[in-house]
Specification:
This protein has 142 residues and is mainly α. The chain is built from 7 helices and no strands. The chain folds into 2 domains: 91 residues; 42 residues, no CATH class.
Amino acid sequence: MALTLLKGLQMVFFFVFGILVSLDVHLHQAYGNHLSVVGSGLSFMAFLGSINMVVGMKGSNQHNKFLLFVHLLFDAFLFFVQVLLGWTLFTATIPEFSQELREDCINFIPLKFDFTEDCLPYLQSKRTSGFELVWRSQFYER
């Protein structure tokens, strides 16, 4: 029963976090629209996980080995999908360029790096454009 309570809290967290990721416009602008699919997937996995908890409780109360086995298989599937969704979120936030390059390229005249070879790819990257879009929508276009 304690495990069911913890899994219930986990499913509530996944559901709320999935909705927040799906609806955050600034997150989509910065990292891409594919994150809305990840957020929807997390919310859907929370819903399926809640249904799976009912199957597990029923199998536990009735000492039904088949229901417990189905619960185990479905839990393993949900865990695998949740890890994939989490990995997708994690890889979307890994910086593409080093901190030193980013700091130097935002100066008026880069000191350490060549502008055309190093800074231009950074300034023209999708992520930099996405964060510029977030910055504009947050501060300039109000």
